[in-house]
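Hello Y.,

Per our agreement to keep a running log of every chain we model this quarter, I'm adding this entry. I've kept the format consistent with earlier entries: sequence first, then predicted structure.
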Amino acid sequence: MPWLDLDQRIELSIGEPIKDFFTSRGEEAFRDVESRVLEECSSLPPHVLSLGGGAVLRDENRRVLARSGWTVWLHCSTDVLATRLQKDQITGRSRPSLTGGGVVAEIEQVMRVREPIYRVSSDWDIDVGLLGPEEVSERIAQWYRAKCAQ
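Predicted structure for the entry above:
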């Protein structure tokens, strides 16, 4: 199944890195673009779509996801997440702070709000703290095949 990254699609749409757009235009403008691009992606043929952590914050986005397919929440401990979030895994750029605090404090603050939303928005969740990308994708593929067989 083809894979798409919502953040990459957003950057193509806005013509600049998300960090720059977020800094110059603000979170609300970014979330508006994110919602529009998510809606566009939902009308494409079946695919796997990677979302940014805030994509499920808006009710409208959760409705788009619910009608478009299944959602899997990848989660791990705060320490693992802090290590992974220090720099963007693809570009090596530092990611924008959402709270202005340190990484661990930011994760804890953000997760207090987001974790309940992730729980109710996902059809399945998987702890990826000790897993590599291949193991994660294989477990998701097994889950997906089982869901399709039902």
